[in-house]
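User: Can you fold this complex?
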Amino acid sequence: MDQPATVDARQLTREYRRGNEVVAALRGVNLCVRPGERVAIMGPSGCGKSTLLGLIGGLDRPTSGTVLLGGRDLVHASPHELALLRRTAVGFILQTPSLLPMLTVQENVELPLALNGHDTRQRSERARELLELVELSEKADSLSEELSGGQQQRVSVARALAQRPQLILADEPAGSLDSATARVVLSLVAETVKRDGITLIMVTHEADDAQYADRVVHLADGLVVKPGEQR
Amino acid sequence: MSGRAYVVPSITRNPRRTIAYLSGTVIAVGLISSILFFVVASANVLTQQAIAPVRVDQQAVLLDPHGSTTSLQTKLARQPGIAAAQRFALAGFTGAQSQAGNRIGQTAAGKIMAVDPTYLSAFGAPVVRQGRFTSGGVVISQDMGTNLGARVGDTLTLSFPHGIPPVRARITGIANIRNTDTLFAPLDPVLRANPFTPPVNVVIMDYRRFEATLKRPLLAHTPAVSANGFVLRSSAPVLEQVHLRIRRDQVPADPAQAKTYVTRLDHRLELAGAGGPGTDNVGTITVVDNLSAALDQAQSDVLWAQTIFVFLALPGVVLAAALSRYVTATAIEAQRRELALLRIRGVGPRQLIGLLGGALLLVALCGVVLGIAGGWLTTRVTANPGTVIDLGGPLLLRSLVLAIVAGILLGVASTLWPLLGFIRTPIVQAQRRVSRSHSPLWARLYLDIAALVLAGVVYEITQQNGGFKPVLNAEGNPTISLSIFTFVAPLLFWAGSILFLVRISRWFVRHSGRVLDPLFRRILGVVGELASRTLERRSGSLHQVVVLLAMGVAFGISLLTFVHTYDQQQRVDAELTLGSDVKVSVVNRAQSPTVARNLMVPGVRAFTPFRSTIAYVGSEIQDIFGINVPTFVRATRLADSFFVGNSAAGTLQRLQATPNGILVSDETARDFSLAPGDSLVLRMLDARTHRYVPIHFRLVGVAKEFATAPKDAFLVANLAYIQRATSDYGVDAFLIRTAGPPGPVTQSLQRDSPMGRWSTSTISRMSSNSSQRPSAASI
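Assistant: Here's the predicted assembly.
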């Protein structure tokens, strides 16, 4: 029996009201992502890339259409179910390193595990393992604001991987980094998800970043203009 | 989720944000609690002031004339809460004569006050001015000394009715018996409420001597005891009592609680008198409670403090909330980003509320403690020195609970509420900064303009009704009351002006660029343009600061208006209750012409005679006041609002023009369906025949209020007509209007009062009850 798609989005539309004007960010997008697949979503600014990512991650609800995540319907899920899904199945890496400033590096990585009810020992071991992976073990006890931008983004990667998610959603993860650091971070993400069989959907507008993906989907004006082919 | 993983670091590792939240709560709680503590302090001060002049707190009266006062005294002295219990007997004598060599003086009837020598020190009254009180001699009142021309060392002979042998004793002292009226007042609660004239001739005698020589013969003539054993009539030949002073340190500071405490003590004393378990029965007693009567006044004055709370606390709470909101606004913005991150990581709405609530509650609790401490300190610093705040008092406990609840609600609400709103929005929207572009409801409904217009209308109505229209409390009680409507205009003005300023500020924020750009460019060139743009970008903060400043200033103005309004109202109230600036009550009505001759002391602008008596309207007794219109209008202040259908001047002119004219109260006019022009026949006491005789009057006007009059039913007529019709040419009082403050006039009149022919009351003394309260301005 076929494994269900990690993400199956159909006829997704998302409209916003701006005063009396209705703005369509997405206009009937279809996207299917298989388990372990690494997909890059590309397109110009304002084409709806981040909106699509938000809908797939359950951060927003579509105006119409359906989104299935691992076979689970996100459109009709309750806020609590969505929160549970994000906590267990999805890891987010945002454009800017989004760490909680009053927590140490280790605590930031441990937090998703704490949310999932892991005990202190399990949390600590997993965090150490991930910090080793991103080569930041020596910074475990530093506050996040004491780290450079690149280091913070590597911690974000570690944090996103902490709960062993099915899916990583990365919204321009290297957007705020210099090119050398960007390459380090993207390689780290790509290699790790490949090694662990995690599905990756990465939004980017840099053509070079597409090399880390198995498939590139092109979006323009709220529509999928090129669904891309498996490399 | 382990809440500690977020809550504890969010508080301890983000001191700036924690301090911001803490400050918001501290400001709110500090402001609210200082207002609440002010109310508590006021209540405490009022209680202390009310009970301080009371010398004898309770008078325990043996209803059985043959009961043992000594046993009762022993028994009551053992009761908890009692500081002093002393025997006291009151008996009358029919005449007195003093002799020293050839110098002989005589005077009329008076009272013997029989007490133990320790009584005077236990109660601090009466005060012996010359000599001392010994068991071998007697002390006489200053007035009696004047009447007899007697001195310390003279021999005094008292005579009695029913063939009781005269009693002779040496005068060993002369005492001031002023301010001891309660000792001689009727004990019957019905009669006690009425005005009475205390005796002028008073002899203070040792109780043991009285008991050995006079008690038994006097009691032999006791009238038959009524079925209920009530022998409290002043006509009883011997009134035996035990006077009590309770331990003042045990009286709760809150007047209401103090009254409950004293009432319970009364009941306990009555039970003790009747013989508690395992004790001897000394006979039925009744306790006349002087302290409760004083506390009644304090209770009504506490309403004043509570009124202040209502009028100050509401704007205060709004101001506190706004300050709290402002202080925490930046911190909230930072926390919004954190919450968005937590939500992305899968923290559900309920978990988030729990986390936030936990952290904010912890901070709010610390803020509440600090705020209450600040409020307490403010009250201690600004209250009058010596003000006691009863730490165990229920009023304080209630205030503390209120401050804590209000503080937590304000503290948590000002932070949690906006964050909760954020939690309800989708995460992607919550990540963005959302600014409201539409006007709030009050602005769309123009509530600010409506409040300002309404404030003007209410103010105009108040003015049309004679300005600060006084309201009297219970009949005859010299209390100060407030019309709640007097404060509606300032409150509406406060709310309206704040909202109006917010409206202007919002308009400025929207249009500042258009206004400032050309102006700044013209004055400063390119730099000016940059400055204008900077201001425009920071217009949100500017708007908040402007609103906060406006609220603070408006709160201050509102407070000052309130204090000023209250002072004016208080003065008008006191003046209406007293009649004018100073009231001189004539002790002996026959001497009123002599009193009148002595009233033109420096500082007196005008005075008028005043007769207060009673008349039967049908079968109903009502107060009737006799006035001399030409002098009355000069010596008193009458508002047009006092009269129905005519001005004050018009009504009094009509009264003066009609010798048998009469003004009736609104209530009397309604009850008896009276209208101007009607004929009225009242029955009044004729001084010659001592019988009630019909006297004809013609109704010339209707009054709602009148100087010294009770609120409900009263009559006002020409003094000369009443005097002729009743053959009684005396007056009861003179109302004096002073050119300046009434204090010096009162002092001068008190100093000059020959032989206690009059007593004075002054508006400043009535007002002083409240002027000694913690100043509202101190808030």
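DSSP finds 25 helices and 22 strands in chain B. The longest strand of chain B covers residues 604-617.
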